[in-house]
């Protein structure tokens, strides 16, 4: 599995990386702009990400806009909806509007509230069919 971890907070990025690294080859982006660049590069190389862990609240390009762009890139590359990258949005806020927007407008697969719990993250990745 190949994963992209996107978060502007060092602690959060590091925590997710430590949890996922036994299961995935992980790349890190510190904001939405870097995430979009990394996602496009991976698609162009024919090595798409299986999973993106995406913080919603970031400076410059936030997670909502990055998610919309990620889905647009997949459309450019004719990715079938069943084959889309699984996106777990992460947020400090248990905000119903943010969650609603991420799922129904952005196409998120799942979401977790920070701080990220190892068992919950691994459970979500398993439920998305990315690991056994």
Question: Can you give a write-up of this model?
Answer:
- The protein has helices at 10-20, 32-44, 63-76, 96-105, 118-127, and strands spanning 2-6, 25-29, 51-55, 86-91, 110-113.
- It is of the alpha/beta class and 132 residues long.
- It has one domain (2-126): Response regulator (Rossmann fold, 3-Layer(aba) Sandwich), CATH 3.40.50.2300.
- α2 runs parallel beside α3 (63-76).
- The modification 4-aspartylphosphate is found at residue 55.
- Pfam families: Response_reg (PF00072).
- InterPro entries: CheY-like_superfamily, Sig_transdc_resp-reg_receiver, ST_Response_Regulator.
In short:
It is built from five helices and five strands; from the N terminus they run E-H-E-H-E-H-E-H-E-H. By secondary structure, the chain is α/β, with parallel strands linked by helices.
The CATH C-level name is Alpha Beta
Low-confidence stretches: none
**Order of strands across the main sheet:** 2-1-3-4-5
Structure annotation, total helices: 5
User: What is the residue-mean pLDDT, rounded to a whole number?
Assistant: 90
Number of domains: 1
CATH topology: Rossmann fold
N-to-C SSE series?
A: EHEHEHEHEH
| Secondary-structure arrangement, i.e. CATH architecture | 3-Layer(aba) Sandwich
Q: What is the fourth-level CATH superfamily?
A: Response regulator
Radius of gyration: 13 Å
Q: State the distance separating the first and last CA atoms.
A: 11 Å
Query: What's the number of extended β-strand segments?
Result: 5
Major beta sheet summary: 5 strands, parallel
What class do helices, strands and sheet pairing give? alpha/beta
Q: Strand fraction band?
A: 15-25%
Shape: globular
Helix content: 40-55%
Organism: Pseudodesulfovibrio senegalensis
Modified residues (4-aspartylphosphate): 55
Pfam families: Response_reg (PF00072)
Protein name: Response regulator
């Amino acid at each position: 599995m190949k994963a992209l971890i996107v978060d502007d907070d060092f602690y959060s990025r590091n925590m997710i990386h430590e949890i996922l690294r036994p299961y995935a080859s992980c790349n890190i982006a510190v904001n939405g702009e870097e995430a979009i660049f990394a996602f496009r590069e991976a698609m162009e190389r024919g090595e798409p990400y299986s999973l993106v862990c995406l913080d919603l609240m970031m400076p410059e390009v936030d997670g909502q806009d990055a998610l919309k762009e990620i889905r647009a890139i997949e459309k450019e590359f004719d990715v079938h909806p069943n084959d889309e990258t699984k996106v777990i949005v992460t947020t400090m806020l248990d905000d119903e509007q943010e969650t609603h927007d991420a799922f129904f407008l952005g196409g998120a697969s799942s979401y977790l509230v920070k701080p990220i719990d190892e068992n919950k993250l691994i459970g979500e990745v398993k439920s998305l069919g990315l690991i056994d």
